[in-house]
Amino acid sequence: MPIRVPKELPAIKVLEKENIFVMDEDRAMHQDIRPLRILILNLMPKKDETEVQLLRLLSNTPLQINVEFLHMSSHEAKNTSSEHLTRFYYQFKEVQEKFYDGLIITGAPIEQIPFEKVDYWEELQDIFEWSTSHVFSTFHICWGAQAGLYHHHKIDKYFLDQKLTGIYSHEVLTPTWSILKGFDDLFFAPHSRYTGIKRSDVEKTDELEVLVESKEAGLFLVGNKNNRAFYAMGHLEYDRETLQQEFERDQLKGIQPNLPENYFPKDDIKEVPKLRWHMAASLLFSNWINYAVYQNTPYELSTLLDKAKG
After folding, report:
1. Which of 33, 59, 108, 191 is most deeply packed, by most CB within 10 A?
2. Does residue 30 have an active-site annotation?
3. What does it do (predicted)?
4. Which of 49, 51, 68, 237 is catalytic?
5. How would CATH label the architecture of 3-305?
């Protein structure tokens, strides 16, 4: 699938080395089709790495997608230059009159902070509310999923006894859902978090259904029965080295982190981790784009507002 992004975005060079078809704005203007419009709210500290990870996953359908990036104006990014944000990212006030086929809300390494204490919580709540009338389907990741469940359904997170980090096996509970079409009964996925969501809390909410769960890691995927929202507790978008980098970062901070489970061969940090989750990642995101978004989103996106009012 051709991903349409700004011509000078640094992620393009990385993706082109992987033979991923990236279409810049100049070429896309000459194609007479209605591309999907996807907005990515990037809350991760190293935004350039997350850009590559998500654009890679959005590249696995034959559809053309226009991708735009959003950052929080109420938060000062410490790991991404202001020049990068100014050049490639929008602020919410610049997009709140627009409509999108899909929205991806990433995770953020702040799950130990109460939601109301997060410096951009008020702005994020505005985005959550805006998305219900201006976005057809939203995919929430890790902390973004916990925050979305808390805002939309009053489901609160709970603290784990220790950080959950590693690669875990997951069981597909509802294979009839289109977002899980083509999945095996079991697949692997990375997790990296200090908090979780209780299945019993989700099951009390009629609009939601638990789709995927792990015996070791707990809930992985929750879906809204109208296909308008999905909540993934893990990080299928992670690269091979991401958990290793997080482990080394925690070591430098003096946190004495647990070794990520099922990650390093023979638990030897000198060994290269095996990549066991990218097939599931590609399938999940392509299913979301195809079945939850493309086959259901209206051609005239502005009609979303009429539906929300009605």
Report:
1. 191
2. no
3. Transfers an acetyl group from acetyl-CoA to L-homoserine, forming acetyl-L-homoserine.
4. 237
5. 3-Layer(aba) Sandwich (3.40)
* Active-site residue, 209 included: no
Domains of the chain by residue range: 3-305
Distance in angstroms (rounded) separating the CA atoms of residues 113 and 92:
23
Annotated binding residues for substrate: 163, 192, 249
Of the residues 51, 68, 142, 152, only one is catalytic, namely: 142
Active site residue 191: no
Predicted pLDDT of residue 150: 98
Question: What is the helix, strand, coil percentage profile of the chain, to 5?
Answer: 35, 25, 40
In order along the chain (310 residues), what is the average pLDDT of each group of 10 residues?
67 69 50 80 95 92 90 86 93 96 96 95 98 97 98 97 96 96 97 96 97 98 96 97 95 88 96 97 96 90 74
Are the CB atoms for 100 and 136 separated by under 8 Å? yes
Residue type, 42: N
